[in-house]
Specification:
The protein is an alpha+beta fold. It has a single domain, classed as Haem-degrading domain (Beta-Lactamase). The longest helix has 21 residues.
Amino acid sequence: MKIQIIAAFAILASAVSAQNINKFVISDEAAKKTLIKYEISADTAAKITQACVDFATKNNMAVSVFILSPTGQIVHAHRMDGQVPINTETALLKAQSVLYTRDSTHARANQVANNVALQLRWAKLPVFPTSGGLPIIVDGQMIGAIGVGGGNRDEECAYQALTTVVGPQPPLAGPAPAPVKP
């Protein structure tokens, strides 16, 4: 009896989980064409971008936002007025870095902070270790990546937008470790 109850809860949990992720990814019909199911939908990407723009506007800053599919295609992009080319370029680099590392750009920045050897090894990798890039996670699956650039609270903007639209996300990286004194 106990095993049957546990099995019933497991089936129910997976059904609820599938219903949750299906709200944010492409349709079954589109997935048949792309052969990828867990890819962020254009509608969800637009909502995340709008939530980020709303956060930026509320906090009197301008940002550029890129949302990429797990395979690197641009699903949605937006540049607020007042952004210069480096702002939009860094937003894209941050989103691309997330796809390469499957982690936040802030976490990667912490890894290279005060580590010249690692900075040199990573110099030729497509990794932009500056906060503002986050994976978009739903039900333990990365359905896309967001990169925000141009503001002074890029990571906070991205995180707030993600949690508002798709729900809880992995915790943000903490501060970089203090330099080791010789």
